[in-house]
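User: quick one, fold this
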Amino acid sequence: MGKRSDFKRRARDDYPTPEAAVLPLLPHLKPSSTFDEPCCGDGQLVEHLENFGHKCLRARDLYLGLTIDTSMDARLITSSDADYFITNPPWERDVMHAIIENLSKIRPCWLLIDADWMHTKQAIPYMSSCRSIVSIGRVKWIPDSKSTGLDNCCWYLFDARQRMWPFHHFDGTTCFHARLP
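Assistant:
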């Protein structure tokens, strides 16, 4: 799955989000917030967030079977009345970048992405809309596996709408939240 292994990636980056990856995000969400999940896969992320009092308004996925349903495509969504988009998107860079670009113009969006991404040249165009980064460390993507993934991960909050949200501090810098025990 990672850049330092020969593990064969799952088709369409289908790695369900474990609860342990969601817990560090919870303090950064408005209480009882609403969200849309545009890359929901099997729905685990939705289930975890709803178990903590948040409400999913819409869950969709880029891929249904082997075809792309454009009405559900996170790269093409045009509106939302939720507080946030919250998703674990595919990590294929062209797909992920298109999702960041589209969703961040509509609502604040939290994306679960590898931590190393922020240090690459390809991240530069998107970092100006990155408001917060929440470090979560390595994620155990495969429940029965003996080990975690090899890449550290973060939740990134993107909001390209140029206005300040009352719950999130933004003064032109990205707030980094270190990993907590």
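User: anything notable?
Assistant: The helical segments are 19-22, 44-51, 93-103, 124-127.
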